[in-house]
Design goal:
With 302 residues, the protein is an alpha+beta fold. It contains 9 helices and 11 strands. It has helices at 3-12, 51-63, 105-122, 139-149, 158-170, 212-224, 232-243, 250-276, 282-291, and strands spanning 18-23, 31-37, 40-46, 82-84, 87-93, 179-182, 191-194, 197-201, 208-211, 225-226, 229-230. The protein is globular, with a radius of gyration of 20 Å.
Amino acid sequence: MEKSFIKSVCDKYNLGGLKSFSVIPLGLINKKILITSSRGKFVLRLSIRSARQLEFEVALLNHICELKVIRLMPYAPGKYISFYNKTPYLVYKFIKGEIPKKITLQLINQIGKFQGKFHVLGRSFKLQVKRDYYYDFSKPRVREFYKKLYKKTPPQFKKQFRVVRDTLLNIQLPKNIPTGPIHVDIKPENVLVKKGELAGVLDFDNSYFGPYIIDIGKTVMWWCINKGRVNQQNFQEFIKAYTSQRKLTSIEQRLLGQSILHAIASHIYIDYLKYQEGIIPLSYLTMLHREFYPVLLKDINR
């Protein structure tokens, strides 16, 4: 990326004089540039989404700005989205911290409280923009995916692919459950910590309006499952922390076990597509099967 363009970004967003910039080697889809200027450190994120879809993310981040999330930089009052060769991009303040090296009960507690508060704040968020509803799988969509992807599924995963399909067909979440903006990707790689404390939750790129219970299941998947087993201590700590901010409804309580199975199955199902599109490597798909797939074969509701 040209230095002249980065300088123009610094001028447009009033970041100060450019000192240096470099590509951030994280993330599978969106390209990120770390900019160091006379006013500090900032991140430029090029997006694969349309500007209209980005408006949802911008509005959501501004709506929940009291939480530990990225702070977007405007180039004019209320204006955040710009373009580079027709590709929309955002600029935000760099958050100091590192990806957690170890999952601790203290951090799980903070994640649970963060997500509970996020869902509470989301109740008053009203902007409706068409997004990719990644993990909402109706029966027709499940069958469509199977028909499209099965032939090109790696041979070693053919059997697992059918189990994942059947899991999603058997778990159809009711429509009368609480919904709002959901993150669906609060995993360790999207979290920054500093001195053991939560410093920020990143990457709202996949966020959309959906059932809170799906979001809860996704977070439990990443923070409470290891090598095919649910860590009950981690799970109980997460639920305790989450419900300290937002109480689960009776129907959500009944659906907790199913939400975890749905989280695993829907994530693997989507990533079969991403693998075939060349977005993720076979090694990542293999990791998902090793770490999470075995849970689908157990009665998690017992």
